[in-house]
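Me: I keep going back and forth on a fold encoding question. No explanation is needed for now; the record alone will do.

Assistant:
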Amino acid sequence: MKTKRDDVEVHYQHTKEIREKLNQDTFAKWLGIELTEMGPGSAEAEMMITENMLNAHGTAHGAVLFAIADFVFAVACNSYGKTSVGLQVNIGYLAACKQGEKITAKATEIKRNNRTSWYEVTVENEKELVAHLSALSYRKNDYFVSGEES
């Protein structure tokens, strides 16, 4: 009979393997997003706003803010080594960012059960909150880290 793996235990036993897997996000690399922290159900990343990330008004494109928020959401919900995918996200843009500003995104787990998990994500520049994202993930059965369910 199989027993359920403890998510937090899996996170701590496989932190390096999980981080290596999630750092393979080629889109995040292309944007220059750097994962700075990862914990069980949490993540933080930062990036610089560059000229090619600006919209017609000369401020950071909403898609750029969404991308870093979505990245930390993905890291946070996959931080247990269990494959999780986004089901729904809602983002609010609260302030503009300019070229040369560093932005930081932080994801925090609000609620997790066997099949779904809910996260709140903030994106800030050095002065203020610039975006807020609420996100729901679907947790699949499989783990992407080594080890068998016992």
Observations:
- The first helix runs from residue 7 to 13.
- The mean pLDDT is 95.
